[in-house]
Amino acid sequence: MLGETSSQTAGYAFLSILTGAVYALVSLAVPTLHATEAAAGARVTRRAALWRTSRGALFIAFLTIIPVTLAIIRYPASVLHAFVDVPNHLQLWKESIRQEWLTSLKARF
After folding, report:
1. Residue 25 domain-assigned?
2. Which domain holds residue 66?
3. Please, what's the b/e burial string for 7-29 (b: 16 or more CB within 10 A of its CB; e: otherwise)?
4. Residue 106 resides in a domain
């Protein structure tokens, strides 16, 4: 989320959010799949297996969703912040080209 506060980091923020989302998804999937396999082997319900074998891991996995969700919510503002100064940069570029052109004209005459 720190990358979203800087101005030229929209791509970095996107990749960080994507990585966080994948991490959150895997941290939910692994304990769930483990509990499902344990339930099949022990002949208990999946809910009981989730409670007995994976409740701590699932709690931590749900905690990883919070910062990822906040980052996803803030990302559009981050992109706007990164690219909102583009017209200003173009204007500065045009002015610098104009100054170079005027300087070259003065040098000729």
Report:
1. yes
2. 2-84
3. eebbeebbebbeebbeebeebbe
4. no
Q: Is residue 100 part of a domain?
A: no
Structure tokens at 91: 């204007």
Query: Among candidates 80, 79, 68, which has minimal Cα distance to 16?
Result: 68
pLDDT in tens, 53-101: 899 999 999 999 999 999 888 887 776 666 665 556 666 767 788 888 8
Where do the H-state alpha helices sit in the chain? 10-42, 46-83, 86-108
Q: For the whole prediction, is pTM greater than 0.90?
A: no
Residue 71 CA to residue 16 CA, distance in Å, equals 9
| Interatomic CA distance for residues 35 and 55, integer angstroms | 10
Closest CA to 61 of 20, 24, 18: 24
> Alpha-carbon distance 28 to 53, whole Å?
13
Please name the residue that has the structure tokens 């344990």: 38
How many domains does the structure of the chain reveal? 1
